């Protein structure tokens, strides 16, 4: 389901397909291409993880930009228009930069979650869920927020010796637990997301 805005937004008229550099208007084609681009981004950033990696705003933006710069002109940029989806109204565009600065200032104090190699999975899941909910509530990018945010925390999980967070047992078209948990995030309730993250975290073997 596409976002709704108080102004003209990023989609081709009458569709939920973002205006793109390749002129693609077929939903199956654009979805397949986005998935391919995400896979390449996973490979690239996973390969380049190191002790020098800093999971800051610049890194989050770089994930989005690297993935979509060949497809969308707004890749890696925060949105400048207000958006909503269903009953969820995300952070007003004028406040995004301040809210992101606030979240990542707190994130920095937690050393970008780089110290969870030896701590409990439950504590790690609690922290991931908290910051994931914060970013979901802000929804900083014009589109493709959810997948980019999950990619971001997959890199953090990998850095700490975990596999990518698994969501395979909770997603289906009729009952998507991640979407439901995301809605709880909008009400400052991280518990459902924490449960999902904890279940999906598994140490690398």
Estimate the mean pLDDT confidence.
94
Could you name the CATH topology? Fic-like fold
What's the CATH architecture?
A: Orthogonal Bundle
Shape: globular
Low-confidence stretches: none
Question: Beta fraction of the residues?
Answer: under 5%
CATH class: Mainly Alpha
- Total number of distinct structural domains: 1
Helix content: 40-55%
Rg, alpha carbons: 17 Å
Q: How many angstroms separate the termini?
A: 37 Å
| Structural class label | mainly alpha
How many strand elements?
A: 3
| Count of separate DSSP helical elements | 7
Largest sheet, described in full? 3 strands, antiparallel
Output the CATH homologous superfamily.
Fido-like domain
Strand order of the largest sheet: 1-2-3
What pattern of helices and strands is seen along the backbone?
EHHEEHHHHH
């Amino acid at each position: 389901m596409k976002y709704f805005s108080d102004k003209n937004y990023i989609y081709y008229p009458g569709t939920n397909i973002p205006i793109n550099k390749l002129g693609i208007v077929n939903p199956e084609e654009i979805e397949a291409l986005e998935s391919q681009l995400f896979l390449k981004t996973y490979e690239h950033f996973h390969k380049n993880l190191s002790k020098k990696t800093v999971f800051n705003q610049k890194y989050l933006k770089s994930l989005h930009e690297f993935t979509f710069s060949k497809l969308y002109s707004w890749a890696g940029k925060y949105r400048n228009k207000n958006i909503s989806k269903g009953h969820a109204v995300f952070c007003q565009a004028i406040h995004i930069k301040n809210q992101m600065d606030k979240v990542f200032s707190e994130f920095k104090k937690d050393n970008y979650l780089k110290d969870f190699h030896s701590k409990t999975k439950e504590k790690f899941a609690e922290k991931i869920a908290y910051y994931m909910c914060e970013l979901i509530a802000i929804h900083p990018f014009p589109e493709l927020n959810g997948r980019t945010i999950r990619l971001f925390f997959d890199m953090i999980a990998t850095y700490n010796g975990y596999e990518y967070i698994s969501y395979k047992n909770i997603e289906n078209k009729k009952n998507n637990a991640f979407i439901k948990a995301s809605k709880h995030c909008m009400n400052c309730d991280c518990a459902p997301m924490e449960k999902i993250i904890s279940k999906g975290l598994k140490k690398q073997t």
